[in-house]
Specification:
Blueprint: E1 9-14, H1 20-33, E2 39-43, H2 58-65, E3 69-73, E4 78-82, H3 90-97, E5 104-108, E6 117-121, H4 124-130, E7 136-141, H5 144-147, E8 154-156, H6 160-175
Parallel strand pairs: 1-5, 1-6, 2-5, 6-7, 7-8
Antiparallel strand pairs: 3-4
Length: 179
């Protein structure tokens, strides 16, 4: 586990229904179960509105009453809701995450941020869009014909066993982590 000020960050970006969440889940699971890493995961709620909270719970009531931060601690899990009364940018959120003993932070979304990115695409329009993004370290797709047209490092999202170890190592190498 890292205890430094700078935890490596990698983004997973793409359009809606391209498989970003599945890829994020697979990477978190791999890093946790195979590599033994502590991973922070962040999803950008880019569809407007607020994330769902469990209504009727004590922590929700505290939050509704005006608490800036409200949490519930279980036996092994703590769930936290935070309302800073303003919108935080990704840099501020990453700084918050870096207060925890993490090895890696995976971010789903925030397409315009400058962190290293894995792009998930499903068609030629998205392939063209991916060229407009900064700091792309790899492009992934379930369509091998699309990947054949891309000059960057690519990963075919077929069976997890086929791509996941190589993609996980590629991310580690490109965000400055040791294997």
């Amino acid at each position: 586990m890292k205890n430094e000020d700078s935890v490596p960050v990698c983004q997973i970006v793409g359009h809606k229904n391209t498989g970003k969440t599945t890829l994020m889940r697979n990477l978190v699971e791999y890093y946790d179960r195979v590599k033994g890493f502590q991973v922070g995961a962040l999803k950008h709620h880019g569809h407007g509105g607020e994330p769902d909270m469990v209504k009727g719970t004590d922590s929700h009531r505290h939050f509704q009453a005006g608490a800036t931060i409200s949490a519930v601690q279980g036996e092994t899990i703590m769930q936290m809701a935070f309302n800073p009364k303003q919108t935080w940018d990704l840099e501020t959120i990453v700084t918050f995450y870096q207060q925890f003993p993490l090895d890696l932070i995976l971010v789903e979304g925030y397409k315009k941020a400058a962190y290293p990115k894995i792009v998930v695409i499903k068609d030629e329009e998205e392939m063209e869009w991916s060229k407009t993004l900064s700091n792309v370290i790899a492009v992934t797709s379930q369509n091998d014909l699309l990947l054949d047209q891309i000059q960057q490092q690519t990963f075919l999202l077929d069976e997890k066993a086929n791509y996941l170890p190589q993609l996980a190592d590629w991310i580690m190498e490109n965000v400055g982590m040791e294997r």
